[in-house]
Amino acid sequence: MYFLSAEERKQLFGGLLPRARSEPVSEELRGWSWHQPPLQPIYDLKLSLFEVANRYCRTGRDLYLRRVLGVETSPNLPMIQGAIFHKTVAKVITTAKRLIYQVGIDDFPEAKRRLSEPDYLSIESFRDRLSQEQIEEIKEKVRVLWEFESTRICSRAEELLASQPRLNEDSLVFHSIPVVVEQKLDGAFLGLSSHLSVDAFTFATPVIFDLKFDVKRDFHRLSPTGYALVMEAMYEFPVDIGCTVYACFKGNRILLERDFYLIDNELRQNFVEERDEKMRMIYEELDPGRPEECYATCPYIQSCKGE
Question: How many domains does the chain have?
């Protein structure tokens, strides 16, 4: 999911990185300026990053129902599938790293063999919420996803092993799997949860990756923007590039589209405004009202309509 093609690397190094240098972000909108406006939180609240960046409900009434009225709901099928697929991608990447360290480069074929076996444990925590038919369908998609990702990892590793005779395990992991998945972040400086988790991040060229099993939405760029601000607040180095990875299944195939962009002043300002508006709604208990049109998979739709 996070391994770039030659064309994408060219776009990144020849386009976005030079633009990031020539179009600098305002200091006041860097995460390390969390202690002063406009980044300084205006209310003593903590929001999850999803609560800030989510605009599926155009008025944000889902957040009002959850945080002000205390309405509880269960995850629906698209939410469950998304959670399972995210866990699967993270699992195959961490498993590949672990196997390289455990088995070593001299017996890489054994690591490759063991990595070829899909891990279905991510389904177990949702088993009581799914029918047998749904379980089998999701299991097949997990298999396709696991095989897609593990094959790409092994190909990258074998290419490196063939060209670098003095490679060690640590170097192989770094160069063939150059991402950190589910990195834990503390967003407290910015009025966000202390238990954030970013889908993937690359340190060599700081890029925030956000994986979506969804169609493109105009607000999807807000999530990497929020993570970039948090990382800047924690580590005090600039994070200027985001990438939303759109994945979908077509039979036994995975289709991918990666949307790269600068995390510029406009995106940062939009994120801060969204955070402040939602904090105010919760703090002052302001009902934003129902949207003109509800999205089909909203888990709060019955409570929202009073049914």
Answer: 1
- How much is the pTM? 0.94
Class of residue 236 by CB neighbours under 10 A (exposed 0-12, middle 13-18, buried 19+): exposed
Helices (H), the chain: 6-11, 17-22, 49-53, 61-67, 77-103, 108-115, 121-124, 132-163, 169-176, 222-235, 265-283, 301-304
Angle, vertex CA 230, rays to CA 80 and CA 31, nearest 5: 150
Report whether pLDDT(13) > 90. Answer: no
**pLDDT tens digits, one per residue of 54-73:** 999 999 999 999 999 999 99
Residue 297 located in a structural domain: no
| DSSP at 12 | I
Question: Would 293 be classed as within a structural domain?
Answer: no
- Non-local (6+) Cβ contacts of 107 within 8 A are none
Residue 307: pLDDT band by 50, 70, 90 thresholds? Answer: low
Instruction: Choose between 4 and 286: higher pLDDT.
Output: 286
Inside any domain, residue 299: no
Residues 6+ apart with CB under 8 A from 307: none
pLDDT for residue 304 is more than 80: yes
- Judge whether 300 lies within some domain: no
Q: Which residue range is the domain that position 103 belongs to?
A: 6-284
